[in-house]
Every structure is written in C-alpha cells, then in structure tokens.
Amino acid sequence: MVKTPVRATLALAVLSGALWASPAAADSGTTPSVWAHRAEVTYGSLQQHLYQGPKEHGLYLEKTPRKEGENPHSYLWPLREAAAATVDMSELPHVGARYDRDAAERFTTLRLYFDPRDGRPGYDSYLPAPLGRGGDVFYDDNAVVGLSFLDQYRATGEKLYLDRALETYRVVGRGWDEDPAKPCPGGMHWVDSPGNYMRAANVTGLSAQLAAELYAIERDDRYLASAKKWYEWNWSCLRRSPGLYDNSREDDGTVNTTLWSYNSGAMIGTATTLYRATGDRSYLERAVEDANGSLTYWKQGDRLHDQPAIFNAFYFDNLRILDEVRPDRAYRAAAAAYAERTWKENRTPSDGLFRFQPSGGGDHDPAAQAETLEQSAMVQIFAGLATDRS
Q: CB neighbours (10 Å) of residue 11?
C-alpha cells in the first residue's frame, strides 16, 4: 500500500497549520494520542507473549500458549503482519524512532522464509531448512511480503528493500494463468503448485497493487502493464457489485462467492495508486465507487465485526490511501468504530492480547489462543488511526 511516511506528513501538517485540526478525529471520541497509546500497548503485548527473541532468530509463535504438536514458529503470513505492524509503529508521531531497530530486525527474519527452490524462488509458507520443513509458495503471501518491503523502503530509503520488492514481483508474476481456454481467461493462481485449480481475487488484487506501487517508484512500463492487466481481471471476472469481489474462479468455471473485506481494500488501493501514478481520473472514480459500495455493505450489522481482523486491517489501510487523495470522513469513521468496539470487546485486559473466534474475527473467546496474526492486525489498525490526518 502507498503509505505517506508519517514524519513527512507531520512536517507538511505543521507548515499548513492543519496538525490535529480535523474534526474527524472525534468520530469515535478517541484522539490520535489515545490510538497511539493503544498501538504501543498492543505492540508491547505482541512482543511479550508471541515474539520469541533474538535467540530464536527474531521469530514469532503462531499462537500462545503454544500447544503440543504445533509448529515451533509461525507461518510466513503472521510474521509478515508482525513486520507490517512494526513499520507502522516506526511511523508513529513522536515515538516512532524507538521502533526503527525492531522494524529492521523483522525484515532480516522475514528473509529466513525465502527459498531459492531450484529456479522457482519465493517465500515459503513455512521456514525452509534448516529451521523448518519448508512449504508451498503462496502467491498472495508473496505479494503482501513485497508490499511490506516497499513500506520499509519508503520509511528508510534503503535500496535493499526496493530490490527485495522487485524480486517478489517476479515471483508473483509466475502466477498469471495463460490458458485462453479457461472460463474468464487470466487471473492469478493462489499457490505455485501443479494442483492449483483456483484463480483468486486476493492474489490478483494484491499483486496488482504491488505492481502499481513499483510503477509509481520506478516508472517502468512493465509494472504499469502488469498492474493494469491484473486489476482489470478482478474487475471483469470477480466484481459482483461496487466494492465487492467474489473470492475466486475455479478452472471449471465455478465461482466461490465468499466476500472478504481485504479484497475490497486491495482494489481500492490499486485504483488509487494507478490514479496517482498516471493521472488517469477513471481510476480515481473506480476507487471512490468501490469505497462507497464496500462501506455500504460492510457497515451493515456485524459484517465488519465478523471479518477476520487482519482482513479489516488491509481494508482500512487502503481506505486511508484513497482518503489522502479524495478525503471522506466516512473512511476514518468506519475504522474508528471497528477499532473502538474491538478494543472494548475482544481484548483481554490481563495480558493485553486480542482473542477472536476461530475465523480470526467475531466475538471475544476468552479460552482461545491469541495469535500473532490478529495481534499484529490490531497494532496496524490503531497505528493507522494514530497517524491518519483525515
């Protein structure tokens, strides 16, 4: 996601006299400083209960308390979300520099999941040897890893992170389906496996977002062409209505109609980034249409509450990207309402950990194991509200 570095944003706000001036901060009755405090407290609990420390290579547990038979370390996706959360912490006003070293460590640890794989490299779903047994290369996982490298590149200016994002772009590019005989040809495979039968909205939208962000930085037309092609497939083949995207198409034409909030978000973020990078207003119009349509749907009843917390973190982050270009108080209000409710209802005060249903969302389950994935999601959401100027 294209995130404006917070330190630069603060400087611009001071110059314009706009720092903390927006009335939108009162949408939930919670100030940016309170959101920042909640982000710090939530991150502290993540580190205390799920981080395994330098002696364990900076890895995390999947869940706590760890049960017999469970992996000794987390899968790739939770580690990526811990990395994303730490970058967000490093961008908090006033205190962000405290977290710079942690953020750098996260990306060193993330590299432990990279497997050259005899010419088909990628980030394995689980640690390859010698630390683990390895796993498949899931293209959606690799796309979000690439997006995090770009966040860290923008935060630090270190070219290594840009190079790693370019590397993951090449990984996910292998996922594009070239068979013209399939229903709705194209789309991106979910996993690098001969047994894959699914072309999915998540990987296609997130890969499009990665390509769009790379184009915005590198101005290489290859990335623009990929971003447009991948974005348009989701729009043409999985878009049910404004802002709502079916989960996937199987090779036999069957459509999985499950809706997830992060699929809404990836398409909003991609369209906004394409607008910012190209000046083509049609992409901005699509982003706004999808944002309005998705909010109308997701705000009904408990729909956001019941989504996995990590999917909502993606969604709100992409609404912020759009809000930087075309402000709308409704975007922040939705995130603040969700965050306020989740802080009150899903957090266990004794340890500061968030617990959900097995889906990763829904009502608090005090007996559930707390997970790196959801704890990191809440850090991201709180930090986003702390640094959002809308």
A: 12
pLDDT tens digits for range 125-167: 999 999 999 999 999 999 999 999 999 999 999 999 999 999 9
Q: Report residue 337 as tokens.
A: 């309402």
pLDDT number for residue 390: 53
What distances in angstroms separate CA 48 from CA 41, 161, 256, 346, one per listed residue? 10, 27, 39, 18
pLDDT tens figures, 228-277: 999 999 999 999 999 999 999 999 999 999 999 999 999 999 999 999 99
Q: Is the peptide bond before 54 cis (omega within 30 degrees of 0)?
A: no
Q: How many residues does the chain have?
A: 390
Whole-number Å distance between alpha carbons of 305 and 236: 28
* Confidence label for 2 from pLDDT (cuts 50, 70 and 90): low
Q: Give residue for tokens 């750098």.
A: 104
Q: Is residue 285 within 8 Å of residue 237, measured between CB atoms?
A: no
Residue type, 278: T
DSSP string, 299-360: TSTTHHHHS-HHHHHHHHHHHHHHHHHS--HHHHHHHHHHHHHHHHHTEETTTTEE---TTS
Token duo for residue 241: 């209505």
Q: Which two tokens stand for residue 315?
A: 């969604």
Enumerate residues 6+ apart whose C-beta is below 8 A from 292: 242, 243
What are the CA-CA distances from residue 382 to residues 92, 133, 231, 377, 386 (Å)? 10, 35, 29, 9, 6
Could you read off the pLDDT of 298-356 as tens digits, one per residue? 999 999 999 999 999 999 999 999 999 999 999 999 999 999 999 999 999 999 999 99
Rounded CA separation 210/1 (Å): 8
Cα–Cα dist 170/53, whole Å: 31
Closest to 52 measured CA to CA, from 73, 82, 21: 73
Which of the two residues, 153 and 9, has the higher pLDDT score?
153
Helices 201-218 and 139-156 cross at an angle (nearest 10°) of: 30
